[in-house]
Amino acid sequence: MTKLFAGIDGGQSSTVAAVGDELGRVLGRGRAGAADEVGQGSDSTRMHDALRGALDAALRDAGLPERTEFEAIVAGISGYQGRVYGKAPALPSARVHLMHDAPIAHAGALEGRSGVIVIAGTGSVVYGQNDDGSSRTLGGWGFLFGDEGSAFGLARDALASLMRAQDDRDEALTPVRRQACDFFSQRSLRDVVHAVAAGEITRDRVAAFAPVVLATAQFRDVADRGADRLAELAVGAIHCGVPARVGLCGGVFGDERFRQRVTGGIRAAIPDADVALAKYEPALGGLLLAYRATGTDVPGLQT
Fold first, then answer.
1. pTM for the predicted model, two decimal places
2. For 165-181, what is each residue's pLDDT tens digit?
3. Are 159 and 192 in contact (CB under 8 A)?
């Protein structure tokens, strides 16, 4: 009987699951909504529904029944710190490992090798792991206090710059201000602020403004500051003794200029640093850790 394993990446905007067999063949992928519990109460089913929904979608994609049992499931969840605040996930395996999303992204990006990952998705964090298993986390302070260079951080900082320009009567940014209001379907920036505070504009919707920021010349300094901060954090992890091998993960790195800015900042400080885009997505990193949790040796993932 075929043994099955799963990795799940529970993010702030969406959740992705991958199902694989004992030979390392990826059989199916699935997607569901956000899984993080930021701002959620004890009655929340957000994490529970997202993890199970993504896994069920992956099973359907693989042509497998919903009641399939797994040898191991590893789920990395944005912001997870060892405690579930809402309804606990119910996943079909005797070995279910919940963890922060950084280790699964690390495993996927660097194929299980030591080094540093820079995550810039809805949120951001830098995570380094040594050969002895010790780790170092920099950044990752959340959308209120940090997340520089993330999609949310770029959007937040760009909107703040528009608000300052409005106060200062800087007419040069008026067309961009109108563009931002149209993007959020609001009449004014103050309406945008009130809609965010009321929860009518969600964090992932704010983060969705990041591609506009990256494509707009007037926001170039905002994008550069975010990229430079991520580079500084990666260099800081390497200076702590983590090998100078860096994987770049997350949707923001789809922008070539942003990616090159981060890469250049790292190599300016550490010329021999090996910097590249992640080898595998975080869900596949979770799958690799699921194999490792059971001592299952796979020659590599067949995607």
1. 0.83
2. 999 888 877 889 999 99
3. yes
